[in-house]
Design goal:
Elements (H helix, E strand, L loop, with lengths): L2 E4 L3 E7 L2 E8 L1 H9 L5 E7 L5 H8 L8 E3 L5 E7 L6 E7 L12 H4 L3 E4 L4 H10 L4 E4 L3 H6 L1 H8 L4 E5 H8 L4 H11 L3 E5 L5 E5 L3 E4 L13 H16 L4 H18 L6 H4 L3 H14 L11
Parallel strand pairs: 1-4, 1-8, 2-6, 4-5, 8-9, 9-10, 10-11
Antiparallel strand pairs: 2-3, 6-7, 11-12, 12-13
Helix pairs in contact: 1-9, 4-6, 7-8, 9-10, 10-12
This protein binds adenosine monophosphate.
Length: 306
């Protein structure tokens, strides 16, 4: 089973307390595709400018990600500039330049329209809807961020009405629902459309809600987090990648997906950009999956009356 992803393919300028990089390859669709490519076939829909060169494309091609729906136009690629303080859970956006994304009209190839798993990565909600309407997928998931929640609330509402699953961080969930309590926020968002919500909580892990179920996992306890950029997208890539690889939609599969998502995000933040994911091996993925399982395992018990 394969996955189609639409999102940003970007150049990022990132500053963390541990270092700084200018114009490195990033973007929601990039991190997502590289992570998901460890599980299944991935096809990417996005637009890039003439600053996107062979070394950038190599990041996709070396993972055998299909770039035939990646449009190239004259101009500059999407550029995001962000900074993190010592609380690495919070990205402070310094600048967002849509550039070639401002005029992008996604036109999907016939093969793309047939893809069974669709991930609408973080980009203008209106573009997410345009892609969603062209694809007859069996599972559609979406991400977004405060930038779109604040700037295009009506388009975002429209998007929520046409997806099965929302993968967002806790602050975004509170903003969408206009509700401080996370449990109540989830209920409100479920009433807006998606049947299932995955909430990424940075170093605190991830939680998953449906109307009738709840699941949560801690994050992998890393000592060195270098650059949190792309954590959310590599999480989504591992999560959706596992679901597509197994083609299962039962609760147990979604839970294992959350663990694979957490594993991929934990590797991604160990280095700047996609550098760590490019060197990742299946032995490393499987070892960390087992560790994460052991960290949150506990035996059944029952206290007799004292
Ligand atoms: P995350 O996984 O949430 O850390 O997302 C990181 C990526 O999101 C970066 O590589 C940015 O290029 C990209 N990004 C930042 N702001 C936006 C935006 N407004 N729309 C689309 N992509 C964005």
């Amino acid at each position: 089973m394969s996955i189609l992803v639409v999102g940003s393919v970007a150049f990022d300028s990132v500053k963390t307390p541990f270092g700084e990089r200018a114009r490195i390859l990033g973007g929601s669709a990039t991190y997502f595709s590289v992570a998901a490519s460890f599980f299944t076939d991935v096809r990417v829909v996005a637009v890039v400018g003439d600053d996107f060169g062979p070394a950038d494309e190599a990041v996709f091609l070396e993972r055998e990600i299909d770039t035939s729906d990646l449009e190239r136009v004259a101009g500059r690629s999407f550029h995001w500039s962000g900074e993190y303080g010592y609380d690495l859970n919070i990205a402070h956006t310094r600048d967002t330049q849509l550039n070639v994304f401002a005029e992008f009209k996604p036109k999907l190839s016939p093969a793309a329209k047939e893809t069974p798993y669709l991930f609408l990565g973080n980009i203008q909600p209106q573009l997410q809807v345009e892609v969603r309407e062209q694809v007859a997928a069996r599972l559609v998931a979406a991400d977004t961020m405060n930038y779109w929640i604040n700037n295009t609330p009506d388009d975002l509402r429209h998007l929520l009405g046409c997806v099965d699953l929302l993968i967002i961080n806790d602050a975004e969930a509170r903003e969408i629902a206009k509700e401080a309590n996370l449990v109540r926020a989830m209920r409100r968002i479920i009433a807006m459309g998606p049947k299932r919500i995955v909430v990424k909580r940075g170093e605190y892990g991830a939680a998953m809600f449906t109307e009738h179920s709840y699941f949560a996992t801690p994050a992998y306890p890393l000592e060195d987090v270098f650059d949190p950029t792309g954590a959310g997208d590599s999480f989504a890539g591992g999560f959706m990648g596992y679901l597509a690889a197994t083609n299962a939609t039962d609760e147990a599969a979604f839970r294992r997906g959350i663990i694979y998502g957490s594993v991929m995000a934990s590797f991604n933040v160990e280095e700047f950009g996609c550098e760590r994911l490019r060197r990742l091996t299946y032995d490393e993925i499987n070892a960390r999956f087992r560790e994460l399982r052991a960290f949150s395992h506990f035996e059944e018990a029952e206290m007799p009356p004292f």
